[in-house]
Automatic annotation (TrEMBL), chain A:
Organism lineage: Eukaryota, Metazoa, Chordata, Craniata, Vertebrata
GO biological process, one term: tRNA wobble position uridine thiolation
Stated name of the protein: Cytoplasmic tRNA 2-thiolation protein 2
Organism: Mastacembelus armatus (zig-zag eel)
GO molecular function, one term: sulfurtransferase activity
Function field: Plays a central role in 2-thiolation of mcm(5)S(2)U at tRNA wobble positions of tRNA(Lys), tRNA(Glu) and tRNA(Gln). May act by forming a heterodimer with CTU1/ATPBD3 that ligates sulfur from thiocarboxylated URM1 onto the uridine of tRNAs at wobble position.
Automatic annotation (TrEMBL), chain B:
Stated name of the protein: Cytoplasmic tRNA 2-thiolation protein 1
One GO biological process term: tRNA wobble position uridine thiolation
Family of the protein in this entry: Belongs to the TtcA family. CTU1/NCS6/ATPBD3 subfamily.
Pfam families for the chain: ATP_bind_3 (PF01171), zn-ribbon_14 (PF16503)
Source lineage: Eukaryota, Metazoa, Chordata, Craniata, Vertebrata
Alphabetic keyword roster: ATP-binding, Cytoplasm, Nucleotide-binding, RNA-binding, Transferase, tRNA processing, tRNA-binding
NCBIfam families per UniProt: TIGR00269 family protein
Keyword tRNA processing set for record: yes
Residues involved in ATP binding: A56, A57, S58, D62, V88, G166, D171
Length: 513, 343
């Protein structure tokens, strides 16, 4: 298990130089244009067929997207998501062998505000994307990341049970579709002309403050991913889409899997990297590109001139050790060049993991992480890494300051003067936790709006292990978007209420949430 | 300005804990380190009073610290355990003979009984002889497989109820990464377990009391306690593939020190899909040791060595197991494939 060139797996063998045959292995006639894997040479035509078939097979095999369903494609502008866009276009075209039967739309999240691009740079990138999107004829939406500041708290609150579709449901949906098909579906897709939205400068500043308040790039990237996901889900909801298509490819998923493990997201791995992700309940994300490697996509895009737009991100032009995500990416890429089966081996691991979080449909929203919406994995289990870390921290801190972990809610009296000053006007309402006024659900928002800031410890208790790590890297929580904070406050007051009435509750289970 | 210890707030801090980055004085660090191991032992219910526990001792830092801490905690908290040292002599000149000297010194320092089992008496082969036949490639497979069984055999000779090994948090995290890179889902699932369930006859349950201790803290502990340990890499293991995982983990740790615990947390919370094929545990039809195949790996490797076909146990040759069992000769083609590669 440990020495040079050891071959405990045949696939781990370093790349061997094979003499590349000049003919396509599929049709054995045309001369080869690409080498996908060692020895697999394809001509242009066969490569195209192979690529298209793989995309369709992924969708066909999983049967998650129903005919006639509205599907929102998340397109960042990168090669992978642009390739996905072109595949959908291809599948819907009249000439397609077996037409795809869903109704696509495109969304692009403009993250320029978080990355620190100037307004001109952002406009330029969007204009480029606009020409690409217009050419598809699909409706498209540009959403600036700044919009995350105005999201409703329902994004992180509602955990509507994902509608379980039995196998028969797909068939009946097909039948329904065939019915409609003859009448209405022949009308062209309604062209929704979307212009590039204006962004208020104050919003961009607020977003910048949020990003700057996160001290490490690892946590920044993690937070940005979460916010982007929230925004995508919200856009899908408000525009009436029920599925979200993400362009994650095999290589990226392998990196993501390893990153997730390093970030402590083991419990959420399957959802983070699987084909479908139902953590948001009514909006299901799917990853149809997960069988393609970055290399295949690059070949395809190059040969068939699929346009893509390069937009620098948070970790562009940084050193390898800038963040865990970036380090993992360069680690996997490097290992892949020496051991060509690295990516597929890691990727296969992801397929062997549990897809549904133990009780994804039944889980109460309070058992879900406030940020990533996965089931909480922070139950105080004996002899776990989580417990061991808490013990270590406790043991190496001043015993007088006490075990900070057991006092999750810091009593109001102990607050620093600055904080209590701000909270003073609402003191009678919110002090020591919802006696009367704060108790009722209608009132909490009123209370909240008067500048009540939840303590770090409060917010922390609603987060999963990994998101707690992210929050730990933030200098203050006040820059978090309002919807997150107000939902944290709502949960906080709910749990306080529950505590107060706990002795009268007969059942430990259900809670009228 | 001297930094004060963040725990007692009186003495000067002498170190920054790699695990939590708190500054601690020597006494508080010792206390914290020992207490953490104690908490791990308690929380995972590793031992019962009256049990005899074998400490797998190589003479390296991990096992030396383990032996020290186990003896100390056994006395401090009255575990009621009878401790013993158990070493394996792989027969590597210039490496194991030196480290075993350390173990022998430890034995006297800690006043614990010591048992050394050697590959030579168990298998009739020393690692030196194996390397001579196999070459520097793949020899770790032999060493690792043989050691696992040797520890069990030694434990049975000593009549211990449990073995504890010096695996630390870094080792566990590294193994999680390795198993992902190798796609080994069965091992991935069990590699984070703190102790093995009693798997059957001939197998002694094992546990890792240092599972949550950072390698760096173990070194710090050994350094400040001035423990006598042996630190040399094995002369036969240039550590390539595992080396990738190790370097990666060290790089990750430099970005976010908690990453080691985070990876273990991930490993502990992985859920494997139902219906994924897992190897079924059986017993070796030759020696009776646990095995998922007809023959256990150790027997296959040994057979290969004795027949002069060292590659028999490297890679997967399950189809040949029946032939080996019935003592049939292999075909010329098969033999050719399994002979060691000439360099």
């Amino acid at each position: 298990m440990c020495q040079v060139d050891e071959n405990y797996h045949d696939d781990l063998d370093p790349a061997e130089m094979l003499n590349v045959s000049k003919k396509c292995i599929k049709c054995k006639e045309a001369s080869a244009a690409v080498v996908i894997r060692v020895g697999d040479t394809y001509c242009r035509g066969c490569f195209k067929e192979y690529f298209i078939h793989k995309f369709r097979a992924m969708l066909g095999k999983n049967r998650i997207i129903f005919p006639g369903e509205k599907v929102l494609l998340a397109v960042s502008g990168g090669p992978s998501s642009c390739s996905m866009l072109s595949q959908v276009q291809e599948g819907l075209s009249q000439t397609a062998h077996r037409k795809l039967r869903f109704l696509p739309g495109i969304v692009h999240i403009d993250e320029g505000g978080a990355v620190g691009h100037s307004m001109e740079e952002r406009q330029k990138a969007l204009a480029e994307l606009q020409t690409v999107f217009k050419a598809t004829g699909f409706p498209f939406y540009f959403v600036p990341l700044e919009k995350v500041l105005d999201l409703p708290s329902s994004v992180v609150a509602t955990a509507t049970a994902p509608s379980e579709h039995p196998a028969s449901a797909y068939k009946s949906a097909v039948n329904d579709f065939i019915h409609i098909d003859s009448s209405s579906c022949s009308t062209p897709l309604d062209q929704e002309e979307t212009s590039i939205p204006e962004v208020q400068e104050s919003h961009t500043q607020f977003l910048q403050q949020l990003i700057v308040s996160v001290k490490t790039l690892t946590a920044r990237q993690d937070l940005l991913n979460t916010l982007r996901q929230h925004l995508l889900v919200d856009t899908a909801r408000t525009k009436g889409y029920s599925k979200l298509m993400l362009g994650d490819n095999c290589t990226r998923l392998a990196v993501k899997l390893l990153t997730s493990v390093s970030l402590g997201r083991g419990a959420q791995l399957a959802q983070d990297t699987g084909f479908s992700d139902s953590r948001y309940g009514d909006i299901i994300s799917v990853r149809p590109m997960r069988d393609f490697s970055t290399k295949e996509i690059a070949y395809y895009n190059h040969i068939f001139s699929v346009p893509s737009v390069f937009i620098p991100g948070l970790d562009t032009k940084t050193t390898n050790k800038a963040s865990i995500q970036h380090l993992t990416e360069s680690f996997v890429t490097k290992l892949q060049t020496d051991f060509p089966s690295t990516v597929s081996t890691i990727y296969r691991t992801s397929e062997k993991l549990q897809t549904a979080c133990r009780s994804s449909s039944t889980a109460d929203c309070c058992d879900r992480c406030l940020l990533c919406m996965c089931s909480l994995d922070t139950a105080p289990e004996n002899a776990s890494a989580f417990q061991a870390t808490l013990i270590s921290e406790q043991l190496s801190q001043n015993t007088f300051l006490g075990a900070s972990r057991s006092t999750k809610i810091i009593p109001r009296q102990n607050q620093d003067p600055l904080e209590s000053e701000i909270a003073a006007p609402t003191g009678q309402c919110c002090s020591s936790g919802g006696e009367e006024g704060c108790g009722s659900a209608e009132n909490y928002e009123v209370c909240y709006s008067s500048a009540h800031r939840p303590q770090t410890a409060d917010v922390k208790s609603f987060l999963c292990y990994s998101c707690q790590l992210t929050i730990k890297d933030m200098s203050s929580l006040e820059h978090l978007p309002q919807y997150v904070l107000s939902e944290a406050w709502r949960r906080h007051s709910r749990s306080q209420m529950r505590e107060e009435i706990s002795e009268f509750l007969l059942d430990d289970g259900d809670e009228g949430d | 300005m001297p930094v004060l210890c963040s725990s007692c707030a009186e003495k000067r801090a002498v170190l920054k804990r790699p695990k939590t980055s708190h500054s601690l004085c020597k006494a508080c660090f010792f206390w914290a380190f020992e207490e953490e191991v104690h908490q791990t032992i308690l929380a995972a219910k590793l031992f019962k009073p009256g049990e005899t526990v074998g400490i797998a001792a190589s003479g390296g830092k991990d096992s030396t610290v383990l032996a020290h801490v186990m003896k100390l905690l056994n006395e401090r908290y009255d575990y009621g355990l009878e401790l013993m040292l158990l070493s394996v002599d792989e027969g590597i000149t210039g490496y194991r003979d030196d480290s075993l000297e350390t173990v022998k010194r430890n034995q006297q320092q800690y006043e614990l009984p010591l048992k050394i089992v050697s590959y030579e008496e168990l298998y009739g082969w020393t690692m030196d002889a194996i390397v001579k036949q196999v070459g520097l490639k793949n020899n770790c497979t032999f060493c690792g497989v043989f050691r696992r069984q040797a520890l069990d055999r030694g434990a049975i000779m000593l009549k211990v109820d449990k073995i504890c090994t010096g695996h630390n948090a870094d080792d566990v995290a590294e193994t999680v990464l390795m198993n992902i890179l190798r796609g080994d889902i069965a091992r991935l699932r069990r590699c984070t377990a703190i102790s093995t369930a009693s798997e059957g006859e001939g197998v002694v349950p094992r546990c890792k009391p240092l599972k949550y201790a950072y390698e760096k803290e173990i070194v710090l502990y050994a350094y400040f306690k001035k423990l006598d340990y042996f630190s040399t890499e094995c002369i036969y293991s240039p550590n390539a593939y595992r080396g990738y995982a190790r370097t990666f983990l060290k790089d990750l740790e430099s970005i976010r020190p908690s990453v080691i615990m985070d990876i273990i947390h991930s490993g502990e919370n992985l859920s494997v899909r139902e219906g994924v094929k897992m190897p079924v545990q059986g017993t070796c039809s030759r020696c009776g040791y646990i095995s998922s195949q007809a023959l256990c790996k150790a027997c296959v490797l040994l057979e290969g060595l004795n027949r002069g076909l060292p590659k028999l146990g490297i890679g997967k040759h399950h189809r040949l197991h029946d032939k080996i069992l019935s003592q049939q000769p292999l075909t010329e083609k098969e033999e050719k494939k399994l002979k060691s590669v000439e360099f």
